[in-house]
Amino acid sequence: MTPVSILFVCLGNICRSPMAEAIFLKILEREHASDRFSVDSAGLLGYHQGELPDSRMRYHAGKRGYSLTQRSRPFSRADFDRFDMIVGMDDQNIAGLKKQAMTLDEDAKIFRMTDFCQSLEATHVPDPYYGGDQGFENVINLLEDACEGLFKEVAGKK
């Protein structure tokens, strides 16, 4: 069986998308489903290419048992061929992805992270970059909820 491939996308790939990737990977580990999925993250902009995630996000992630060690990379058009689902964090991410989609099939691969929220209500995952500690904690809360919902959706557990 071919693994389901999921790409999480935010603006710079240093806060939200690497956090979503780490959370989803931990869910896969817990559910013994790692062999059924391929997961990655990317940013619409390449400003931080090759960098570790933001140190504040790594700190808050670490407090909850997540390790963010992936390096930032920019989204590329080839990602439409490599991934079954491309999950954006906010309207700007979704618009940027849709602008790059050249076919209806590519456009159909784009999803909004908060559409998978189960118990929290949000229209987007806010960028915590310019905020304080509470912003990072809020992002992790939203992503934990949405990643659980996404897993249920793609694993057929809904």
What do you see in this structure?
Helix 1 crosses helix 6 and helix 2 crosses helix 6. The mean pLDDT is 96. The radius of gyration is 14 Å and the shape is globular. The chain has a four-stranded parallel sheet, sandwiched between helices. The chain has a single domain, classed as Rossmann fold (3-Layer(aba) Sandwich), CATH 3.40.50.2300. The protein has 158 residues and is an alpha/beta fold.
Helix content: 40-55%
Overall average pLDDT? 96
Number of helices: 6
Counting DSSP E segments of at least 2 residues, the number of strands comes to 4
What's the helix-strand series?
EHEHHEHHEH
Structural class estimated from helices and strands: alpha/beta
Strand order of the largest sheet: 2-1-3-4
CATH topology name: Rossmann fold
Note the main sheet: 4 strands, parallel
Estimated radius of gyration: 14 Å
List low-confidence stretches.
none
The first-level CATH class name:
Alpha Beta
Strand content: 5-15%
Q: What form results from the Cα inertia axes? A: globular
Task: Give the gist of this structure.
By secondary structure, the protein is an alpha/beta fold.
Strand and helix map with partners:
Elements: E1 4-10, H1 16-30, E2 37-43, H2 55-63, H3 79-82, E3 85-88, H4 91-100, H5 104-107, E4 110-112, H6 133-154
Parallel strand pairs: 1-2, 1-3, 3-4
Descriptive labels:
4 strands, Rossmann fold, 4-stranded parallel β-sheet, alpha/beta
